[in-house]
Design a protein that fits this description.
The chain has about 170 residues and is an alpha+beta fold. The chain has two domains: about 80 residues, no CATH class; about 90 residues, no CATH class. It has five helices and nine strands. Helix 4 links the parallel strand 4 and strand 5. The longest helix has 29 residues. It starts with a helix and ends with a strand.
């Protein structure tokens, strides 16, 4: 590997390691109020062959419950856990990323009423800094919105398509 590439990859790895520690702490803090009080999260950075994006393979390791070992998030997270994880991740990045609009598609699926309320409050907090577009069927989430749009299911007999029922809210 050319020396210049090696140096650039090493610098990127060091920056990733520093950022990973910050992300781990921030993400766990965001997940705890979302009924994941005992969650563990770790960013695993393993060496890989160099590419245009560096010489690292990044894996998010996750343990939602006490006593469970850290495992790849994509392998073990339930639908509700993944929804909450993505909400927490977007909340973390929204503080440093200048995204104008955040889109959430049924981020509240598979969670209890108490967690739904926390998700609604988190979405409302995000809407103070960003435009938030959210697809939801939860009245608790929809109640936090400034504007509502409703899209109904329609079956078109002469078509192969069915329009999916969506209740969309726009905050911010």
């Amino acid at each position: 590997m050319p020396r210049k590439l090696t140096k650039a990859c090493n610098q990127l790895t060091q920056a990733r390691q520093k950022s990973a520690v910050q992300l781990e702490a921030r993400l766990v803090a965001e997940l705890k109020p979302l009924a994941m009080e005992k969650v563990q999260f770790q960013v695993e950075i393993a060496p890989s062959l160099p590419t245009a994006t560096g010489a690292d393979k990044i894996t998010f390791l996750f343990s939602p419950n006490p006593g469970e070992p850290l495992q790849p998030l994509t392998a073990i997270a339930s639908g509700g856990e993944m929804s909450r994880f993505l909400l927490a991740l977007k909340a973390c990045f929204s503080e440093v990323e200048p995204a104008g609009t955040l889109v959430f598609d049924e981020i509240d699926v598979g969670v209890s009423g108490r967690v739904t309320q926390v998700i609604a409050e988190k979405l409302h907090q995000l809407s103070q800094r960003h435009q938030v577009l959210c697809v939801t069927h939860q009245p608790l989430v929809a109640a936090m919105a400034d504007r509502h749009f409703r899209v109904d299911k329609q079956v078109i007999e002469s078509s192969l398509f069915t329009l999916i029922p969506l209740c969309v809210q726009l905050c911010g």
